[in-house]
Amino acid sequence: MKHIGCLCLFIALSGCDQQENVQMPVFDLVDQHKMMALVNEHNWTLVDVRSSDWFNGWPSDNTGVGGHIPGARNFDLNWLLNESHELNKVTERLFQSKRMRKAPGIVIYGSDQYEAQILADWLVAEQGFENSDIRIFPFGFSGWLKSGGDVETMPSYTRLVPPVWLEKQMQKPQPPVILDVSYGSGIRYRLTHIPQAVHVDTSWIESRPLWNVVPENELQQTLKHLGISQNKQVVVYGQDMTAAARMVSVLDAMGVNDVRLLNGGLKAWIEQDNAVQSGWVTPEPVETFGAAEFKDVWVDTERVKAILNNDSEHLISVRSWREFTGENSGYSYINAKGRIPGAVWGHSGTDPYSMQDYINPDGTLREIRDIAAYWQQLSPTEETVMAFYCGTGWRASLSWFAARLLGYENARIYDGGWMEWSSDPRRPREAG
Fold first, then answer.
1. pTM, entire model
2. What Pfam families does this protein map onto (predicted)?
3. Three-class SS of residue 414?
């Protein structure tokens, strides 16, 4: 597991100011039969501490098999390497979405017993859990595989790629087009970006005053300039997963056949000790984009009104709770407060520029079971229309992408979002 040596050192050093003879907690070990009995018959929560990429479905280094034990929840051990004050901001959100507080107990597994022990120690020492309510499956994921256990993966996990996959693709004779997405002239890009990546300013794909996506013909010209045609493989990343997801929605709408999102973005790439470069990469334009038709990704205001009048279709707000309830508008350039009447809250983050309910502490996408729970009250099927909105489209694009991973092909983005809806005082609003 990446950085596991650093994490072990961190755990060891954190106890240096304690008495030398203090013993670490002892946890009961369980075999496979006991583990599954606790989970299935007694409603304990099963926690996988391995990399979220391995958990999702990508092959791990030591087993060559990806995925996780069915029903497991992911709590990547490397999240503990974050600054404690940053980690503390999201731990309770993580515990709540993964049922780690409310469950009768927790069973932990990793690649081996030692990894599971580290999380167990942290839960007891730092988070107030009782060691009597924690069990460890010492044989780990490899032991589960050797016993013939089934494996569960995230649907469509190949669209959410880890850095190791991208690094291998870059070595091929025809590497993917790599897009580094951010707003503005690309100052950060000029300082640090993935080799071969070309910069995309989001103002090329959306425009004032409402920051809606520009017309199809303008998008096509931009994509051709970036070297993208319908049949090119494209990998998108950014320092911000929401900006990258915004670009993914554009590529999907334009019918590009193979579009991937780099899980964790630039931060994940750097943390895997991959090479970066500075300067500017000039794209190689293509003459022909292809005969793709504009796909249904976005909905306009009139369609939103129809959704609100249809009990089988749903408008989902992924603005922060303070925005949703009308405590603030979220943006300096949006004066109106409140929400669209009839919209349901689909969780988000603490402010307009974060999405802790959708993004892990290391910047990777939350496990799909976490995200799916936010819409559970709607009882959606694969055919259900769910239109996501935020302020101007970035956060909604990430929730839309997660919904597509889950197989909701009728997931949509209300492109105008709160900015467009609230721009007309005749449209209703509500707060509270």
1. 0.94
2. Rhodanese
3. strand
